[in-house]
Design brief:
Blueprint (H helix, E strand, L loop, with lengths): L4 E9 L4 E5 L15 H11 L9 H4 L2 E10 L2 E9 L3
Antiparallel strand pairs: 1-2, 1-3, 3-4
Length: about 90
């Protein structure tokens, strides 16, 4: 069975910089110490998937204008859900 997978989460800063989180093929496990941004990754993906409200942490919304997700299914891929962040 072929499924769409998130391959990248992209953050566009207010200063023109781009930060990308690349997810490996297969299972991705997000680890790290307390207050290092793990939940922010999940909240950002939730926002890109069309959540009715944003729970993205202020340390991101103060620095970022847009967030996007890159999806892949076999040989097809697209970037979707690039949203303007409002805070």
């Amino acid at each position: 069975m072929s499924r769409w997978k998130i391959t990248h989460l992209v953050f566009y800063s207010k200063h023109g910089e781009i930060r990308t989180i690349e997810f490996n093929k297969g299972v991705t496990i997000i680890t790290g110490g307390s207050n290092t941004g793990k939940s922010a990754v999940i909240d950002s993906i939730d926002y890109c998937l069309g959540s009715s409200s944003s729970r993205i942490a202020s340390f991101i919304t103060e620095r970022v204008t847009h967030i996007g997700c890159k999806w892949k299914n076999n040989d097809s891929e697209f970037i979707a859900n690039v949203f303007r962040l409002w805070h």
